[in-house]
C-alpha cells in the first residue's frame, strides 16, 4: 500500500492544476446518494457484479466528494455497489474535497447521468457478431431488450453521420388540424406510424413539393397546409389503389402481410345492419368449427372461396 500511495502522490502532483485528485480507498468509506435517478435492471446489475469479479477490480473510476473521512459517490453508484457485492475491498476513485452544497452535488449527479451516448444498433450488431466466445458475450453485458432491438436493426440502416437537414414547417387552421389528426389516427390504426424517424432523399422531398404545387394549381389554393390536406383527401378516396402493393393484376400475392380492408372495400366502416349480420355469420361458423375463433378474419376468406367456387361451377 505504501508504494501504491507514493505512486498516487506522484500522479496527484501532476494533477495539481486539476480540480480532482486520485486515491485508493476502502469501500467501507463510500457513501451513496439517497436518491439516484439512474436505475439498472437486476439482470444488468448481476452482469456488472460478475464482470467485476472477473476483472478483480473496477475498470472505470467513480467520481466522489470527500468530506471528512467519507467519500460520497456522485457518479458510479452502481459500479461501486456492484464492486462491494463482488467482494472488492478497495477501489480507485477520482474525488474533489472542494466544499459542495447539497444542490451542487445533485447537479453533478444529474449531469453525469445525462451524459449517455446512444448505440448505433447496426454497428453494435456487427461488433456483437465478431464475438464468438459465449463467456465474452456474457461479459459484454447486453440485456435482453438491447439484444432484441439489435436483432430488429435493419441491415441497411443509416449510421449517425453529419447530414444536411432540411426542415419543412406547416401551419394549420383549427379545422385543418382536426383533419390532419384524423388522418394520423387512421394511419396509426393501420400500423403506419411507429416511434421511428425516417430520412428521405432530397428527390423525394421535391416530389412532395411537386405534388403540392399541382394540387394548389388544380384547386386554386395558396396555403401549403391546405394543399397537404387535399393530398390526404385524394389519397383517402383512392385507397383501393393500395391493392397493387400486395397483389399483381392476376391476383398473385407480392407479400403475405396484413393489409387494410379499405384497399378492397374502399371504406373503413360498414353499415351497422351489415355488421350485425356479419357477426352472426362469423359466430355460427366459429361454433361449427369451420374457422378458428382467434382468426375470425378467415370468415372472409372462406366465404370468398365458396362464392368463387360456386361461380366456377355455374351455380
UniProtKB/TrEMBL annotation:
- Enumerate the InterPro entries for this protein: ParB/Sulfiredoxin_sf, ParB_N
* Domain of life per record: Bacteria
Residues annotated as domain ParB-like N-terminal:
25-114
Q: What name has this protein been given in UniProt?
A: ParB-like nuclease domain-containing protein
Q: Which organism is it from?
A: Anaerovibrio lipolyticus DSM 3074
Amino acid at each position: 500500500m505504501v508504494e501504491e500511495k507514493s505512486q498516487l502522490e506522484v500522479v496527484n502532483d501532476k494533477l495539481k492544476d486539476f480540480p480532482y485528485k486520485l486515491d485508493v480507498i476502502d469501500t467501507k468509506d463510500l457513501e451513496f446518494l439517497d436518491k439516484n435517478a439512474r436505475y439498472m435492471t437486476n439482470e444488468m446489475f448481476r452482469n456488472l457484479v460478475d464482470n467485476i469479479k472477473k476483472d478483480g477490480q473496477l475498470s472505470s473510476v467513480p467520481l466522489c466528494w470527500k468530506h471528512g473521512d467519507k467519500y460520497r459517490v456522485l457518479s458510479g453508484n452502481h459500479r461501486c455497489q456492484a464492486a462491494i457485492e463482488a467482494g472488492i475491498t478497495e477501489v480507485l476513485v477520482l474525488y474533489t474535497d472542494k466544499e459542495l452544497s447539497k444542490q451542487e452535488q445533485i447537479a453533478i449527479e444529474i449531469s453525469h447521468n445525462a451524459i449517455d451516448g446512444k448505440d448505433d444498433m447496426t454497428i453494435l450488431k456487427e461488433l456483437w457478431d465478431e464475438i464468438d466466445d459465449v463467456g465474452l458475450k456474457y461479459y459484454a453485458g447486453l440485456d435482453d431488450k438491447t439484444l432484441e432491438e439489435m436483432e430488429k436493426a435493419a441491415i441497411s440502416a443509416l449510421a449517425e453521420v453529419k447530414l444536411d437537414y432540411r426542415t419543412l414547417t406547416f401551419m394549420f387552421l383549427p379545422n385543418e388540424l382536426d383533419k390532419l389528426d384524423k388522418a394520423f389516427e387512421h394511419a396509426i390504426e393501420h400500423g403506419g406510424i411507429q416511434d421511428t424517424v425516417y430520412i428521405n432523399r432530397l428527390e423525394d422531398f421535391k416530389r412532395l413539393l411537386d405534388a403540392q404545387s399541382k394540387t394548389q394549381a388544380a384547386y386554386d389554393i395558396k396555403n401549403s397546409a391546405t394543399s397537404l390536406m387535399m393530398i390526404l383527401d385524394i389519397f383517402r378516396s383512392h385507397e383501393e389503389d393500395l391493392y397493387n402493393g400486395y397483389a399483381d393484376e392476376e391476383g398473385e400475392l407480392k407479400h403475405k402481410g396484413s393489409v387494410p380492408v379499405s384497399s378492397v372495400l374502399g371504406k373503413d366502416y360498414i353499415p351497422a345492419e351489415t355488421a350485425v349480420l356479419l357477426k352472426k355469420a362469423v359466430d355460427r361458423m366459429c361454433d361449427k368449427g369451420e374457422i378458428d375463433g382467434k382468426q375470425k378474419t378467415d370468415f372472409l376468406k372462406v366465404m370468398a372461396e365458396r362464392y368463387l367456387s360456386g361461380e366456377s361451377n355455374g351455380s
